[in-house]
Design brief:
The chain has about 70 residues and is of the alpha+beta class. It has one domain. The chain contains 5 helices and 2 strands; from the N terminus they run ααββααα. The chain has a two-stranded antiparallel sheet with strand order 1-2. A hairpin with a 2-residue loop joins strand 1 and strand 2.
């Protein structure tokens, strides 16, 4: 991800959000990643669309970063 977004990925994602909006689907290798960059969009994703996201496959990286949580 460093090669794609540089040393400050949050700045690069902010620039992308200004162009594409607060919700983006990025393809990182063979994994599609949903990036949500505003509180309102995060609320929509986590509360309103929770059933649609509940059966998503477990991402190994997130499993490691959250210590299995």
């Amino acid at each position: 991800m460093y090669c794609l977004l540089g040393a400050l990925p949050h700045h690069a994602l902010h620039r992308l959000a200004r162009w594409y909006g607060p919700v983006m689907l990025l393809r990182l290798g063979h994994v599609s990643t949903l990036v949500v960059l505003s509180p309102e969009a995060a609320r929509e994703v986590m509360k309103t669309q929770d059933a649609a996201l509940a059966n998503r496959p477990v991402n190994m990286t997130m499993n490691i970063l959250t210590y299995g949580g």
